[in-house]
Amino acid sequence: MRFDDSTVSIPRERRLRRILLELSSRCNLDCPMCFLKGSGETRGDLEWKVLANLFEQARRFPNLEWIHFGGIGEPLVHPRAIEAFQLAAEKGWGLRLTTNGTLVEPGLARALIRTGLKIVDFSLEAEAVGLAGRDSDPGTVLEAMRILEEARKAEGSPFPEIRAAIVLTASNLQRVLTLPRALREAGARGVSLSNLVPTSEGMRPLALYPVSLEEEAILQKELFLAFQKEGLNVALPRFALSSERHCAFARSETLLVRWDGHVSPCIRLSHGYDEWVLGRKKRVCTHSFGSVAEESLETIWDSPAYTSFRWRLRRALYASCLDCNLLSVCEYPKTTESDCWGDSPACSDCLWDRNLIRCP
């Protein structure tokens, strides 16, 4: 690849460690903060033939450790979700599931235990105000956690580890601070906290960031102590802007396979939607490096476009809109199509790489 006035030779490698697999883009809920809310995108389920072929191709990556069933949508609405977990387990990978928990009942919980899932992240809503399309009472998910924990004990299994994933907002912060004991009693052992990605103008006031470094230290300390007091491991986001940039997806050698087989580098670029970045409206454009329904995963991973993309992200060699004094008059930040360095897709004002937004 060319970088400035140099030619960079990138050796072929098979460092893929995790596949984030979107079994379905459908969901039984209609959450207002969902990226697909009002997007008009076609939704559907991953075809079994594509899934089976993907798993066979993935065996050629010796460092692959995890299949994480998540993405946008609820994995458990897929009609063959349990079979998918079982098939992945037969290949010897660690299995992780992110779910809203509303479909978990005793029979399904026992089936989940028997698939060998190592980690289940429950996406928990804790809004103090009612949000249309979703039950804002965390009691529903806490009960699902208890059901899974009881099934785990009944099966005599050490797995799965139960974790909670919570999006922090200005209206639910105080409520979240009261949840640690209830989470521990429901069986949770860890919690991942993230900030909100506003997907509408009306959601902008709910964002807790950006704040000063002093305010961030106070907020992080309050959250850390609340969860640590109950013995819960907690992963915290940033709340202040930092010049440091680290793409968690590139660093962890992760890719995302959508419900239609397309391969995206991360959750953010897997679907098209509008987001508000620190008050600015931005169009996030779907980006695919290829489809496993049409070509092999090896071919996609080794493609010059994807290889150079990963190389740049690991080294943070891409434009940084948030540090630029031309931000207010520049056209590039309006979409993720490309940046002023000529790179596409553009990660130039991604809130994930500033650790303001986190995924489980």
What is the topological layout?
Blueprint: E1 2-3, E2 6-7, E3 18-21, H1 48-58, E4 66-69, H2 81-90, E5 94-99, H3 106-115, E6 119-124, H4 139-155, E7 161-168, H5 173-176, H6 180-185, E8 188-195, H7 213-228, E9 233-235, H8 248-251, E10 254-257, E11 263-264, E12 273-277, E13 280-284, H9 297-302, H10 304-314
Parallel strand pairs: 3-4, 3-10, 4-5, 5-6, 6-7, 7-8, 8-9
Antiparallel strand pairs: 1-2, 10-11, 12-13
- The rounded Rg comes to 20 Å
Total beta strand runs: 13
> Strand portion, in percent?
15-25%
Q: Spell out the helices and strands N to C.
A: EEEHEHEHEHEHHEHEHEEEEHH
Mean pLDDT: 93
Enumerate the strands of the largest sheet in spatial order, edge to edge or round the barrel.
Answer: 9-8-7-6-5-4-3-10-11
Main sheet summary: 9 strands, mixed
Structural class: alpha/beta
Span between termini:
33 Å
Structure description:
With 360 residues, this protein is of the alpha/beta class. Helices cover 26% and strands 16% of the residues. The chain has helices at residues 48-58, 81-90, 106-115, 139-155, 173-176, 180-185, 213-228, 248-251, 297-302, 304-314, and strands at 2-3, 6-7, 18-21, 66-69, 94-99, 119-124, 161-168, 188-195, 233-235, 254-257, 263-264, 273-277, 280-284. The mean pLDDT is 93.
